[in-house]
Amino acid sequence: MNKHSPRAGISRLAKAMIPRELATWSTAAIMLAALEGGLAGVVVKSVFDGQASALWVNLAVALVVGAPAFANVFSFLFVAYGHGRDKVRLMSLSISGCGLGLLLMAASPVSSFGLWMFTAGMILARVFWSGVVTLRASVWRMNFSRDVRARITSRLMTASALVMGLVSALIGFWLNHQALAFRWIYPLAALIGLLTAWVYRKTRVRGSRRLLRDEQQSRSQGVGRFTAMAGILKRDRKFRNYMLAMMLFGSGNLMLMAPLIVVINEHFSLPRLDQVLITSSIPLVMVAISVIFWAKLLDSRHILEYRALHSWSFVVALASFAYAAISGDTMGFWLGSVLLGIAYGGAVLGWNLGHNDFSNDKDSNAYMGIHVTLTGIRGVVMPTLGVLLYQGLNALNPDLGRLALLLPFTLVVAGAISFVVLARQHRQS
Protein backbone atom coordinates (compact mmCIF):
# COMPACT_ATOMS: atom_id res chain seq x y z
CA MET A 1 0.00 0.00 0.00
CA ASN A 2 1.21 3.52 -0.78
CA LYS A 3 2.69 5.15 2.32
CA HIS A 4 0.41 8.15 1.82
CA SER A 5 -2.76 6.11 1.47
CA PRO A 6 -5.54 7.39 3.72
CA ARG A 7 -7.01 3.88 3.95
CA ALA A 8 -4.10 2.45 5.92
CA GLY A 9 -5.13 0.99 9.29
CA ILE A 10 -4.13 2.22 12.71
CA SER A 11 -1.99 -0.29 14.61
CA ARG A 12 -3.15 -1.85 17.87
CA LEU A 13 -0.32 -0.15 19.77
CA ALA A 14 -1.21 3.26 18.36
CA LYS A 15 -4.86 2.73 19.29
CA ALA A 16 -3.81 1.92 22.86
CA MET A 17 -1.90 5.20 23.09
CA ILE A 18 -4.68 7.43 21.77
CA PRO A 19 -6.86 7.59 24.95
CA ARG A 20 -4.06 9.02 27.12
CA GLU A 21 -3.08 11.51 24.42
CA LEU A 22 -6.74 12.48 24.03
CA ALA A 23 -7.20 12.97 27.78
CA THR A 24 -3.98 14.97 28.07
CA TRP A 25 -4.51 17.43 25.25
CA SER A 26 -8.24 17.86 25.96
CA THR A 27 -7.36 18.82 29.54
CA ALA A 28 -4.51 21.05 28.38
CA ALA A 29 -6.95 22.79 26.03
CA ILE A 30 -8.74 24.31 29.03
CA MET A 31 -5.48 25.92 30.08
CA LEU A 32 -4.64 26.92 26.51
CA ALA A 33 -8.01 28.62 26.02
CA ALA A 34 -6.91 31.21 28.58
CA LEU A 35 -3.63 31.59 26.68
CA GLU A 36 -5.19 31.90 23.22
CA GLY A 37 -3.83 35.00 21.50
CA GLY A 38 -7.14 36.41 20.30
CA LEU A 39 -8.75 36.15 23.73
CA ALA A 40 -5.71 37.60 25.53
CA GLY A 41 -5.64 40.47 23.05
CA VAL A 42 -9.26 41.31 23.82
CA VAL A 43 -8.48 41.19 27.58
CA VAL A 44 -5.58 43.62 27.15
CA LYS A 45 -7.57 46.01 24.98
CA SER A 46 -10.66 46.02 27.21
CA VAL A 47 -9.04 45.89 30.68
CA PHE A 48 -5.93 48.04 30.22
CA ASP A 49 -7.23 50.58 27.70
CA GLY A 50 -6.58 54.04 29.17
CA GLN A 51 -3.88 52.81 31.58
CA ALA A 52 -1.22 53.76 29.03
CA SER A 53 -1.14 55.57 25.69
CA ALA A 54 -3.11 54.01 22.82
CA LEU A 55 0.16 53.13 21.06
CA TRP A 56 1.52 51.18 24.04
CA VAL A 57 -1.76 49.38 24.68
CA ASN A 58 -2.00 48.37 21.02
CA LEU A 59 1.64 47.23 21.02
CA ALA A 60 0.84 45.11 24.08
CA VAL A 61 -2.06 43.63 22.11
CA ALA A 62 0.40 42.79 19.34
CA LEU A 63 2.76 41.12 21.81
CA VAL A 64 0.13 38.92 23.49
CA VAL A 65 -1.41 38.01 20.13
CA GLY A 66 2.03 37.19 18.74
CA ALA A 67 3.21 35.42 21.91
CA PRO A 68 2.08 31.91 20.85
CA ALA A 69 4.25 32.24 17.75
CA PHE A 70 6.96 34.51 19.17
CA ALA A 71 7.70 32.08 22.02
CA ASN A 72 8.74 29.51 19.46
CA VAL A 73 11.95 31.43 18.82
CA PHE A 74 13.21 29.66 21.94
CA SER A 75 12.38 26.22 20.56
CA PHE A 76 15.97 25.53 19.53
CA LEU A 77 16.85 25.63 23.25
CA PHE A 78 14.28 22.91 23.95
CA VAL A 79 15.60 20.94 20.97
CA ALA A 80 19.14 21.15 22.31
CA TYR A 81 18.25 20.33 25.90
CA GLY A 82 15.82 17.56 24.93
CA HIS A 83 18.35 15.84 22.67
CA GLY A 84 19.17 12.49 24.27
CA ARG A 85 16.80 13.08 27.22
CA ASP A 86 13.38 11.78 28.25
CA LYS A 87 10.91 13.78 26.12
CA VAL A 88 7.82 12.98 28.20
CA ARG A 89 9.43 14.14 31.45
CA LEU A 90 10.59 17.40 29.88
CA MET A 91 7.14 17.99 28.38
CA SER A 92 5.53 17.52 31.80
CA LEU A 93 7.90 20.08 33.32
CA SER A 94 7.16 22.51 30.48
CA ILE A 95 3.40 22.18 30.94
CA SER A 96 3.89 22.95 34.64
CA GLY A 97 5.93 26.01 33.65
CA CYS A 98 2.93 27.40 31.77
CA GLY A 99 1.23 27.74 35.15
CA LEU A 100 3.89 30.23 36.31
CA GLY A 101 2.99 32.58 33.48
CA LEU A 102 -0.72 32.22 34.16
CA LEU A 103 -0.27 33.16 37.81
CA LEU A 104 1.74 36.22 36.80
CA MET A 105 -1.10 37.29 34.50
CA ALA A 106 -3.68 36.81 37.25
CA ALA A 107 -1.73 38.99 39.68
CA SER A 108 -1.33 41.92 37.24
CA PRO A 109 -2.70 45.23 38.62
CA VAL A 110 -4.88 47.36 36.35
CA SER A 111 -2.20 49.96 35.63
CA SER A 112 0.54 50.68 33.11
CA PHE A 113 2.84 48.38 35.10
CA GLY A 114 0.14 45.71 35.15
CA LEU A 115 -0.18 45.97 31.37
CA TRP A 116 3.43 44.86 30.92
CA MET A 117 3.23 42.36 33.78
CA PHE A 118 0.27 40.69 32.07
CA THR A 119 2.13 40.72 28.76
CA ALA A 120 5.27 39.21 30.33
CA GLY A 121 3.21 36.44 31.95
CA MET A 122 1.62 35.59 28.62
CA ILE A 123 5.02 35.39 26.91
CA LEU A 124 6.49 33.26 29.72
CA ALA A 125 3.60 30.78 29.56
CA ARG A 126 3.85 30.51 25.79
CA VAL A 127 7.64 29.99 25.92
CA PHE A 128 7.08 26.93 28.08
CA TRP A 129 4.33 25.75 25.74
CA SER A 130 6.68 26.04 22.76
CA GLY A 131 8.81 23.40 24.47
CA VAL A 132 5.80 21.12 24.71
CA VAL A 133 4.98 21.54 21.02
CA THR A 134 8.59 21.02 19.92
CA LEU A 135 9.10 17.84 21.95
CA ARG A 136 5.60 16.52 21.26
CA ALA A 137 6.39 16.29 17.54
CA SER A 138 9.06 13.69 18.31
CA VAL A 139 6.70 11.66 20.52
CA TRP A 140 3.98 11.62 17.87
CA ARG A 141 6.48 10.64 15.19
CA MET A 142 7.63 7.63 17.22
CA ASN A 143 4.16 6.52 18.31
CA PHE A 144 2.21 7.02 15.08
CA SER A 145 3.29 5.93 11.60
CA ARG A 146 3.28 8.33 8.63
CA ASP A 147 0.23 6.84 6.91
CA VAL A 148 -2.08 7.47 9.90
CA ARG A 149 -0.29 10.28 11.74
CA ALA A 150 -2.43 13.09 10.36
CA ARG A 151 -5.68 11.25 11.10
CA ILE A 152 -4.66 10.53 14.71
CA THR A 153 -3.40 14.08 15.17
CA SER A 154 -6.67 15.36 13.75
CA ARG A 155 -8.60 13.45 16.43
CA LEU A 156 -6.44 15.00 19.14
CA MET A 157 -6.68 18.47 17.62
CA THR A 158 -10.45 18.15 17.12
CA ALA A 159 -11.01 17.45 20.81
CA SER A 160 -8.55 20.17 21.81
CA ALA A 161 -10.08 22.78 19.51
CA LEU A 162 -13.64 22.01 20.65
CA VAL A 163 -12.66 22.38 24.30
CA MET A 164 -10.73 25.58 23.61
CA GLY A 165 -13.59 27.04 21.57
CA LEU A 166 -16.21 26.32 24.22
CA VAL A 167 -14.01 27.46 27.12
CA SER A 168 -12.97 30.67 25.35
CA ALA A 169 -16.66 31.46 24.69
CA LEU A 170 -17.43 30.94 28.39
CA ILE A 171 -14.50 33.16 29.30
CA GLY A 172 -15.76 35.79 26.86
CA PHE A 173 -19.22 35.61 28.44
CA TRP A 174 -17.67 35.97 31.90
CA LEU A 175 -15.52 38.93 30.79
CA ASN A 176 -18.56 40.55 29.18
CA HIS A 177 -20.19 40.78 32.61
CA GLN A 178 -17.09 41.19 34.78
CA ALA A 179 -14.02 42.82 33.24
CA LEU A 180 -11.72 41.64 36.06
CA ALA A 181 -12.79 38.00 35.76
CA PHE A 182 -9.26 37.18 34.60
CA ARG A 183 -8.29 37.28 38.31
CA TRP A 184 -10.11 33.96 38.70
CA ILE A 185 -9.72 32.56 35.20
CA TYR A 186 -5.94 32.36 35.09
CA PRO A 187 -5.33 30.66 38.49
CA LEU A 188 -7.91 28.02 37.55
CA ALA A 189 -6.14 27.51 34.22
CA ALA A 190 -2.79 27.14 36.04
CA LEU A 191 -4.24 24.45 38.31
CA ILE A 192 -5.55 22.55 35.29
CA GLY A 193 -2.10 22.78 33.70
CA LEU A 194 -0.53 21.09 36.72
CA LEU A 195 -3.13 18.30 36.49
CA THR A 196 -2.30 17.84 32.81
CA ALA A 197 1.42 17.59 33.55
CA TRP A 198 0.77 14.90 36.18
CA VAL A 199 -1.36 12.85 33.79
CA TYR A 200 1.11 13.03 30.92
CA ARG A 201 4.07 11.74 32.95
CA LYS A 202 2.87 8.16 32.45
CA THR A 203 2.85 8.33 28.64
CA ARG A 204 4.96 5.70 26.85
CA VAL A 205 7.03 6.37 23.74
CA ARG A 206 7.44 3.49 21.32
CA GLY A 207 11.13 2.83 20.63
CA SER A 208 12.19 5.44 23.20
CA ARG A 209 15.35 3.58 24.20
CA ARG A 210 16.50 3.34 20.60
CA LEU A 211 15.69 7.01 20.00
CA LEU A 212 17.60 8.15 23.11
CA ARG A 213 20.56 5.92 22.22
CA ASP A 214 20.70 7.29 18.67
CA GLU A 215 20.42 10.88 19.90
CA GLN A 216 23.11 10.41 22.55
CA GLN A 217 25.46 8.90 19.97
CA SER A 218 24.91 11.87 17.68
CA ARG A 219 25.25 14.45 20.47
CA SER A 220 28.90 15.03 19.66
CA GLN A 221 27.84 16.12 16.18
CA GLY A 222 25.85 18.99 17.70
CA VAL A 223 22.48 17.80 16.44
CA GLY A 224 19.73 20.01 17.83
CA ARG A 225 21.95 23.05 18.33
CA PHE A 226 21.37 26.26 16.46
CA THR A 227 24.36 25.73 14.18
CA ALA A 228 23.20 22.22 13.33
CA MET A 229 19.76 23.53 12.38
CA ALA A 230 21.39 26.17 10.19
CA GLY A 231 23.33 23.34 8.54
CA ILE A 232 20.08 21.54 7.72
CA LEU A 233 18.76 24.64 5.96
CA LYS A 234 22.00 24.88 3.99
CA ARG A 235 22.05 21.31 2.70
CA ASP A 236 18.32 20.52 2.36
CA ARG A 237 17.19 22.69 -0.55
CA LYS A 238 13.57 21.48 -0.59
CA PHE A 239 13.09 22.16 3.09
CA ARG A 240 14.81 25.53 2.77
CA ASN A 241 12.43 26.56 -0.02
CA TYR A 242 9.50 25.31 2.04
CA MET A 243 10.62 27.51 4.94
CA LEU A 244 10.97 30.51 2.62
CA ALA A 245 7.41 30.05 1.36
CA MET A 246 6.25 29.62 4.96
CA MET A 247 7.96 32.90 5.83
CA LEU A 248 5.75 34.76 3.35
CA PHE A 249 2.60 32.82 4.10
CA GLY A 250 3.06 32.70 7.87
CA SER A 251 3.94 36.39 8.05
CA GLY A 252 0.53 37.30 6.68
CA ASN A 253 -1.27 34.94 9.05
CA LEU A 254 0.57 36.16 12.12
CA MET A 255 0.19 39.82 11.17
CA LEU A 256 -3.60 39.58 10.94
CA MET A 257 -4.95 39.18 14.47
CA ALA A 258 -3.42 42.15 16.32
CA PRO A 259 -4.61 44.89 13.92
CA LEU A 260 -7.92 42.99 13.52
CA ILE A 261 -8.57 43.20 17.29
CA VAL A 262 -7.63 46.90 17.32
CA VAL A 263 -9.80 47.68 14.26
CA ILE A 264 -12.85 45.89 15.69
CA ASN A 265 -12.39 47.53 19.09
CA GLU A 266 -11.78 51.08 17.88
CA HIS A 267 -13.98 51.28 14.76
CA PHE A 268 -16.92 48.99 15.56
CA SER A 269 -19.25 48.93 18.55
CA LEU A 270 -19.05 45.22 19.29
CA PRO A 271 -19.28 43.92 22.90
CA ARG A 272 -16.42 41.92 24.45
CA LEU A 273 -18.25 38.62 23.93
CA ASP A 274 -18.63 39.27 20.19
CA GLN A 275 -14.95 40.22 19.95
CA VAL A 276 -13.91 36.97 21.69
CA LEU A 277 -16.26 34.92 19.50
CA ILE A 278 -14.86 36.43 16.28
CA THR A 279 -11.18 36.31 17.20
CA SER A 280 -11.09 33.10 19.24
CA SER A 281 -14.14 30.90 19.88
CA ILE A 282 -15.60 30.54 16.38
CA PRO A 283 -12.24 29.83 14.70
CA LEU A 284 -11.46 27.18 17.32
CA VAL A 285 -14.80 25.41 16.88
CA MET A 286 -14.34 25.47 13.10
CA VAL A 287 -10.91 23.89 13.56
CA ALA A 288 -12.61 20.96 15.25
CA ILE A 289 -15.17 20.65 12.47
CA SER A 290 -12.74 20.92 9.54
CA VAL A 291 -9.57 19.20 10.75
CA ILE A 292 -10.72 15.68 9.80
CA PHE A 293 -11.18 16.74 6.17
CA TRP A 294 -7.71 18.28 6.10
CA ALA A 295 -6.22 15.14 7.72
CA LYS A 296 -7.38 12.93 4.86
CA LEU A 297 -5.87 15.38 2.40
CA LEU A 298 -2.52 15.50 4.23
CA ASP A 299 -2.29 11.71 4.66
CA SER A 300 -2.50 11.29 0.88
CA ARG A 301 -0.11 14.08 -0.20
CA HIS A 302 3.35 15.46 0.37
CA ILE A 303 3.27 18.61 2.50
CA LEU A 304 4.17 20.82 -0.50
CA GLU A 305 1.20 19.54 -2.49
CA TYR A 306 -0.99 19.88 0.59
CA ARG A 307 0.07 23.49 1.20
CA ALA A 308 -0.54 24.36 -2.46
CA LEU A 309 -4.22 23.55 -1.88
CA HIS A 310 -4.70 24.47 1.76
CA SER A 311 -3.11 27.94 1.63
CA TRP A 312 -5.94 29.37 -0.48
CA SER A 313 -8.37 28.87 2.41
CA PHE A 314 -6.44 31.57 4.26
CA VAL A 315 -6.58 33.84 1.23
CA VAL A 316 -10.39 33.72 1.25
CA ALA A 317 -10.57 34.24 5.03
CA LEU A 318 -8.29 37.28 5.06
CA ALA A 319 -10.13 38.74 2.07
CA SER A 320 -13.36 38.59 4.10
CA PHE A 321 -11.77 40.40 7.06
CA ALA A 322 -10.30 43.10 4.85
CA TYR A 323 -13.66 43.61 3.12
CA ALA A 324 -15.45 43.94 6.47
CA ALA A 325 -12.94 46.42 7.86
CA ILE A 326 -12.96 48.64 4.78
CA SER A 327 -16.67 48.47 3.95
CA GLY A 328 -17.97 48.58 7.51
CA ASP A 329 -20.08 45.45 6.96
CA THR A 330 -19.62 43.52 10.22
CA MET A 331 -21.03 40.33 8.69
CA GLY A 332 -17.67 40.03 6.96
CA PHE A 333 -16.01 39.62 10.36
CA TRP A 334 -18.31 36.72 11.26
CA LEU A 335 -17.84 35.07 7.87
CA GLY A 336 -14.09 35.64 8.05
CA SER A 337 -14.04 34.07 11.51
CA VAL A 338 -15.70 30.88 10.20
CA LEU A 339 -13.37 30.75 7.18
CA LEU A 340 -10.32 31.42 9.34
CA GLY A 341 -11.21 28.50 11.59
CA ILE A 342 -11.51 26.20 8.58
CA ALA A 343 -8.10 27.39 7.40
CA TYR A 344 -6.63 26.91 10.89
CA GLY A 345 -7.92 23.34 10.86
CA GLY A 346 -5.55 22.54 8.02
CA ALA A 347 -2.77 24.76 9.35
CA VAL A 348 -2.51 23.02 12.72
CA LEU A 349 -1.87 19.69 10.97
CA GLY A 350 0.61 21.10 8.47
CA TRP A 351 2.45 22.97 11.20
CA ASN A 352 2.77 19.96 13.53
CA LEU A 353 3.50 17.31 10.89
CA GLY A 354 4.80 18.96 7.70
CA HIS A 355 8.49 18.78 8.62
CA ASN A 356 8.27 14.97 8.79
CA ASP A 357 8.14 14.78 4.98
CA PHE A 358 11.71 16.13 4.93
CA SER A 359 13.26 14.55 8.06
CA ASN A 360 13.98 11.14 9.59
CA ASP A 361 13.50 9.85 13.16
CA LYS A 362 16.90 11.01 14.38
CA ASP A 363 16.69 14.61 13.17
CA SER A 364 12.93 15.24 13.24
CA ASN A 365 13.29 17.35 16.39
CA ALA A 366 15.87 19.55 14.67
CA TYR A 367 13.60 20.04 11.64
CA MET A 368 10.69 20.91 13.91
CA GLY A 369 13.00 23.22 15.82
CA ILE A 370 13.82 25.11 12.64
CA HIS A 371 10.15 25.41 11.77
CA VAL A 372 9.01 26.71 15.14
CA THR A 373 12.04 28.99 15.57
CA LEU A 374 11.31 30.72 12.27
CA THR A 375 7.67 30.92 13.33
CA GLY A 376 8.88 32.64 16.48
CA ILE A 377 10.76 35.25 14.48
CA ARG A 378 7.59 35.96 12.51
CA GLY A 379 5.63 36.06 15.74
CA VAL A 380 7.69 38.84 17.28
CA VAL A 381 7.93 40.97 14.13
CA MET A 382 4.64 40.65 12.24
CA PRO A 383 1.94 41.49 14.82
CA THR A 384 3.97 44.52 15.90
CA LEU A 385 4.46 45.58 12.28
CA GLY A 386 0.71 45.23 11.68
CA VAL A 387 -0.12 47.43 14.67
CA LEU A 388 2.49 50.04 13.73
CA LEU A 389 1.08 50.15 10.20
CA TYR A 390 -2.40 50.64 11.69
CA GLN A 391 -1.15 53.41 14.00
CA GLY A 392 0.63 55.17 11.14
CA LEU A 393 -2.37 55.06 8.82
CA ASN A 394 -4.69 56.06 11.64
CA ALA A 395 -2.51 59.08 12.41
CA LEU A 396 -2.85 60.25 8.80
CA ASN A 397 -6.61 59.74 8.79
CA PRO A 398 -8.76 57.81 11.29
CA ASP A 399 -10.50 56.00 8.42
CA LEU A 400 -7.23 54.79 6.88
CA GLY A 401 -6.29 52.51 9.78
CA ARG A 402 -8.67 49.85 8.48
CA LEU A 403 -6.49 49.48 5.36
CA ALA A 404 -3.81 47.84 7.53
CA LEU A 405 -5.56 44.49 6.95
CA LEU A 406 -4.63 44.60 3.27
CA LEU A 407 -0.95 43.90 4.00
CA PRO A 408 -1.46 40.50 5.69
CA PHE A 409 -3.85 39.58 2.88
CA THR A 410 -1.18 40.42 0.27
CA LEU A 411 1.48 38.37 2.07
CA VAL A 412 -0.80 35.33 2.30
CA VAL A 413 -1.54 35.53 -1.44
CA ALA A 414 2.21 35.66 -2.18
CA GLY A 415 2.81 32.63 0.06
CA ALA A 416 0.01 30.63 -1.58
CA ILE A 417 1.49 31.27 -5.02
CA SER A 418 4.91 30.16 -3.73
CA PHE A 419 3.47 26.85 -2.52
CA VAL A 420 1.88 26.21 -5.92
CA VAL A 421 5.27 26.70 -7.58
CA LEU A 422 7.06 24.44 -5.08
CA ALA A 423 4.42 21.70 -5.44
CA ARG A 424 4.85 21.73 -9.19
CA GLN A 425 8.63 21.42 -8.81
CA HIS A 426 8.19 18.55 -6.34
CA ARG A 427 5.98 16.59 -8.75
CA GLN A 428 8.52 17.05 -11.52
CA SER A 429 11.51 15.93 -9.39
Structure description:
The protein is mainly alpha-helical and 429 residues long. The protein has one domain: MFS general substrate transporter like domains (Growth Hormone, Chain: A). 81% of the residues lie in helices and 0% in strands. It contains 16 helices and no strands. Helix 6 packs antiparallel against helix 15. It is globular, with a radius of gyration of 21 Å.
Short description:
By secondary structure, the chain is an all-alpha fold. The chain has a single domain, classed as Up-down Bundle (Growth Hormone, Chain: A), CATH 1.20.1250.
Please render the helix and strand layout as text.
Layout: H1 12-34, H2 37-47, H3 54-70, H4 75-82, H5 87-106, H6 112-143, H7 146-177, H8 182-200, H9 208-218, H10 226-235, H11 237-267, H12 272-299, H13 303-327, H14 331-353, H15 364-396, H16 406-428
Helix pairs in contact: 1-7, 1-8, 2-3, 2-11, 2-12, 3-6, 3-11, 3-15, 4-6, 4-15, 5-6, 5-8, 6-15, 7-12, 7-14, 10-15, 11-13, 11-15, 11-16, 12-14, 13-14, 13-16
Which features characterize this protein?
mainly alpha; Growth Hormone, Chain: A; disordered N terminus; 0% strand; 81% helix; 429 residues
| Relative helix content | over 70%
For the record, the CATH class is: Mainly Alpha
Query: In whole angstroms, how far apart are the ends?
Result: 22 Å
Tell me the Rg in angstroms: 21 Å
